[in-house]
TrEMBL record:
Coiled coil: none annotated. This is Uncharacterized protein. One of its GO terms (biological process) is lipid catabolic process. GO terms for molecular function: hydrolase activity, acting on ester bonds.
Amino acid sequence: MFVVFSLVIGVVQSVNAEVPGIFVLGDSTSDVGTNNYLPQSTIKANFPHHGIDFPFAIPTGRFSNGFNTADYLVHNDLLAFKGPLETEKFLSKSLFFISIGSNDIMNNYYSSNPIPKEYFIPKLGLVYEKHLRNLISLGARKFGIVSVPALGCCPSQRIYQANGECLEELNNQARAFFSTMELLLGNLRLEYKDIKYSLGNTVDMTLNVIDNALAFNFKYVKTACCGSGILNAQGSCSPISDLCSNRNEYLFWDSFHPTQTASKLAAFTLYGGEPRFVSPIKFSQLPDA
């Protein structure tokens, strides 16, 4: 059910400590190009206009005009390690950045026979728990987890609303999933006393930016920068798509994914934002936890 699109080992700095590695397990919002090497994947971003603001304007496979949130949370230094004991020690001090669940909710919502939210969200939580327990059994102890964002506010969903507003049913499912994650992580913390986690409430993060767009220097929160049709969201981003020139003023790069500017803002919020956006600790506090 969960698809891992990227696995990155990096180095992140903190004031008093270092995390020796970060593993990024995520969907297309955090894919840094690993998707290019999955032959079975039919959805890729290794062509223009993707990457137009990346160094040398290279379309790396990121679903973005440049960098994404994962890039801003990690550096790209690689660390080699060998042996089970060394690996376990490495993993216990590493940070696991996880951002998954959006595709599962969207695919179920638009399936011909969708599972009701009251059953599907708990089921999704159980699958998430299984994967977390697998990571814990391997030695993982520090988790930076990003919940599902306000899916109903993506341009791809706004086009189905007569007034171009958010599709609230999808946002409600995202909220329900966040509540499930809060409970799941709290229970795991009681069971495994040595695990530490930071949970990002990206539903509220997204809505806060939309409701206060000008304060964050965004002029366009409904329309995609790269695409075609209504809200520039009826066609995927491609070399022949309509492309905005003022990309820093857009919240969304294409019909689903944030711009580089929005990704940077999200990373900064996860790293040091208010408790209503990231709890019980901030991502920046994980290295010392």
